[in-house]
Design brief:
Number of domains: 1
Strand order of the largest sheet: 1-4-3-5
Radius of gyration: 22 Å
Structural class: alpha+beta
Low-confidence stretches: 1-13
CATH superfamily: Hypothetical protein apc22750. Chain B
CATH topology: Translation Initiation Factor IF3
Helix content: 25-40%
CATH architecture: 2-Layer Sandwich
Number of helices: 6
Strand content: 25-35%
CATH class: Alpha Beta
Order of helices and strands: HHEEHEEEHEHHEE
Mean pLDDT: 81
């Protein structure tokens, strides 16, 4: 089974198409909750009338740097999806990918990111910077997870069609304001927040294997092999996603391991970063080297 956000025909099983007449996300693949559709209408009215103060999760330094770079913050945008993650049973003694759970983690994050981009599009944004992806649980939803994507929508003072993605929507980036400033000043540009995930069942050891290790320092090849395999699947999927968006590379990569609600032997391996287009010419001056005299 193939996973990823490459296109509508190659990827994790997605939600059913939205019913006719329902508000949809910018990609047209997902429906918008009624409250979210109402929020987008309010954002569109604010944009049309140019009324109201912008909101942002930027720090003071980030705001100043973005303004100096020629980007204006438009508003704090978010997308969310409360998702019931199903069950899949793995062989107790076999390490294997849990493809049903991998598909769920992909689809839920896609919902959140697409809804966030739809809000930014309503503000006529060129992109979203400082994107944060989070998963949280609520007391009233045992077994359910809330997937959240949030960031600050920005617009260039000198608009360019190259800033936006193929669907006409805004780019996304999880870079900080400082890193975004440095990247763009150096002649490069972010394309999209990209990720790869793999939910993997790590096999249990037999009682005999566990007994052999008693009192010894030794590697556990069974576990090492499983973790290598799962991380490689997540990294490869992230790289494929970056290639789909036309990125030359990925910066700020973070690889995490999360257990969520499945127990100790079912683990999500997640790789996240920002796909960027690179330029051979840098707009930054060469750094000045300094020698500290304090030591």
């Amino acid at each position: 089974m193939a996973f990823g956000r490459k296109d509508d025909t190659q990827g994790a099983p997605a939600s059913p198409p939205p019913p006719p007449g329902d508000a949809t996300t910018i990609s047209g693949r997902f429906s918008m909750p009624q409250a979210a559709a109402g929020r987008i209408q309010r954002l569109e009215r604010l944009e049309e009338t140019d009324q109201g103060a912008f909101t942002s999760d930027l720090s003071v330094n980030e705001f100043v740097l973005l303004h100096k770079l020629g980007f204006d913050p438009l508003g704090y945008v978010m997308g969310t999806s409360i998702y019931h993650v199903g069950l899949q049973y793995g062989n107790w003694r076999q390490s294997m990918e849990l493809e049903v759970l991998t598909a769920a983690m992909y689809n839920a994050r896609e919902l959140a990111i697409d809804r966030m981009r739809t809000e930014a599009h309503a503000l006529k944004a060129d992109g979203i910077v400082g994107v944060h992806l989070a998963i949280q649980q609520h007391a009233w939803g045992n077994g359910e997870l809330e997937f959240v994507a949030q960031g600050t929508a920005v617009r260039a003072k000198d608009p360019s069609a190259s800033h936006k993605l193929a669907d006409g929507g805004p780019f996304t980036s999880d870079l900080s304001g400082q890193d975004f400033f440095t990247l763009v000043k150096a002649g490069h540009f972010p394309r999209a927040l990209v990720f790869g995930t793999c939910v993997y069942h790590v096999a249990h050891q037999s009682v005999r294997q566990a007994m052999k290790m008693t009192g010894q320092n030794m590697e556990i090849p069974l576990f090492t092999e499983a973790v290598y395999t799962a991380r490689e699947l997540a990294m490869t999927r992230m790289e494929d996603e970056a290639a789909h968006h036309g990125a030359d590379g990925i910066v700020g990569v973070r690889a995490g391991v999360y257990n969520h609600i499945w127990g100790e032997h079912a683990t999500e391996f997640l790789a996240v970063g920002t796909g960027v287009t690179t330029s051979p010419e840098s707009g930054l001056d060469d750094p000045n080297l300094t020698l500290s005299l304090n030591d």
